[in-house]
Amino acid sequence: MGLEIGIEWLTLIMFGSLLVLLMAGLPLAFVTGGLACVFLFILGDERALNIVPSRIFPLMTNYQLSAIPLFIFMASMLERAGIINDMFDVIYKVLGGVKGGLAAATIIASTILAAMVGVIGAAVVTMGIIALPAMLKRHYDPKIAMGSIMAGGTLGILIPPSILAIIYAVVAEQSVGELFIGAVVPGLLLSGMYILYVIISCTISPEKGPPIPEEERIPFKEKMRLMSGMSAPIALIAIVLGVIFTGVATPVEAAGIGTFGAIIVAAIHRNLDWQTLREASLTTLKASAMVIWIMFGATIFVGLYVLEGGQQFVQGALEATGLGPWGILILMQVVLVILGMFLDWVGILLLCVPIFVPIVKALGAAAFGLDNPDDLVLWFGVLYLVNMQMSFLSPPFGYALFYLRGVAPPDIPMTDIFKSALPFLALQIIGLVLCMMFPGIITWLPNLVYG
Fold first, then answer.
1. Which residue numbers delimit the TRAP C4-dicarboxylate transport system permease DctM subunit domain (predicted)?
2. CB 51 within 8 A of CB 300
3. Which of 175, 187, 325, 401 is the most exposed place for a label (fewest CB within 10 A)?
4. Count of CB atoms situated within 10 Å of the CB of 278
5. For 168-203, how does the pLDDT look when each residue is reduced to its tens digit (9 = 90+)?
6. Is there a contact between 110 and 298 (Cβ–Cβ < 8 Å)?
7. Can you give the pTM of this predicted structure?
8. Handedness of CA 259, 262, 267, 268 (dihedral sign)
9. Are 188 and 115 in contact (CB under 8 A)?
């Protein structure tokens, strides 16, 4: 028989050692999985190790998860085919005459990009390479330029097809399609808030985002011709999201359609060759393997913690704070933001969601003024996605900040990158509060689609 350790001490030892090893720079997947096996052996006996296959196997055979490599492949095909460059170019020329137009173009391009790419890094890096030099050349305020790239780039986590949403739905045992549809309005709301902020601040002080000089602007006919060149990728997004929303296809089938479509779009743009296919496949392999390994490790870790009574401990601790349902919800959001500064998003999801979702369900829909328990789970899921988006922007360890650092000119100090994220972070907090105060922002569209 293994050791008997009280749950309070176990919480401290398990999460303490997790933190120490992560700070030592070890990869999350192997830290969580390795620690879990060590603790399983200490707490139980060799039979306790049977938890490992029994937790991993349901994930390995989960049909929903096959959408992940497909969406990643679709994104990397479109990126390799140079479509993202073309798209920014078009939007940039169409909006160039507006004050702050290029920053707005960056956010719009990122929003469309988010609908193609479920991954954050790709959008921030791509826009950093294409849009940042373009804006700096036009004497844009670097803070506005960098902020709009990071804020726009993080929309990928929210706007479907988001990979985070797929994993969330699998872990919380929820419909992927509903979560996708629930995230549309909040995603567009945030995107709209960013664009308004950029245009208003550039209208107030035009030196922050000057319009393109008259002689470089293009006539309306030329604009229409440029727009028509973008019809293939836009049609692809419309089809992929359309079949999910109408319920014609499951998200996995839609991902398959999208992948096939991406290959065709690359062919139309005359960029389809072995090199492109090979590189896109390798990117997909690396990214999917990383996500799945983290899922394996973290699910054993949390599985063990819940088995030892961690769930009841956390629930008891939250109730003991004496906060009402709203207080507990806000506390959860704060915990997520703090974790978001240190951990990577798959890790946070797998460590928190299995513990948080049952607690939210136990509080009940009525506590938050919702009529339907299904609405409650959906609402919490989208709040979670908005929250993760904040964690990508929050200094000191937000991923978006470091993705941008990698491609920004070396003479821009890191402190400027931090500062440029702050106004957009404030907008995100406003967006999160709006989604909390008015759950209808999230639940209206899914109820409309699914009745």
1. 15-441
2. yes
3. 325
4. 11
5. 888 888 888 888 888 888 988 998 999 899 888 888
6. no
7. 0.83
8. positive
9. no
Residue matched to tokens 């922007």: 393
Task: For residue 21, give both structure tokens.
Answer: 């090893």
- DSSP state string for 204-251: HSGGGSPPPPGGG---HHHHHHHHHHTHHHHHHHHHHHHHHHTTSS-H
**Residue 265 identity:** V
Q: Measured at the alpha carbon of residue 14, what is the angle toward residues 10 and 16, in degrees to the nearest 5?
A: 110
Q: What is the distance between the alpha carbons of residues 41 and 47, in angstroms, rounded to a whole number?
A: 9
Q: Does residue 161 have a cis peptide bond before it, meaning omega lies within 30 degrees of 0?
A: yes
Q: Is 111 in contact with 123 (CB distance < 8 Å)?
A: no
Amino acid at 382: V
- Rounded CA-CA distance 313/319 in Å is 10
Type of residue numbered 408: A
Tell me, what amino acid is at 96? G
Number of helices (H), then strands (E), belonging to the chain: the values are 21, 0
Task: Kindly report, residue by residue over 49-96, the tens digit of the pLDDT.
Answer: 787 888 888 888 888 888 888 888 888 888 777 777 777 777 777 776
Tell the residue number behind the tokens 């296919």, with chain if given: 277
Locate tokens 């919490």: which residue? 380
Asked if residues 150 and 425 have their Cβ atoms less than 8 Å apart, the reply is no
Is residue 146 a contact partner of residue 404, using CB atoms and an 8 Å limit?
yes
Assigned token pair, 375: 């609405």
In terms of residue numbers, what domain contains 75? Answer: 5-448
Percent of the chain clearing pLDDT 70 (strictly above): 94
**Residues 6+ away with beta carbon under 8 Å from 130:** 84, 85, 88
- Determine whether 282 is exposed, middle or buried from the number of CB atoms within 10 Å of its CB (0-12, 13-18, 19+): exposed
Tell me the CB-side half-sphere exposure of residue 49, using CA atoms within 13 A: 8
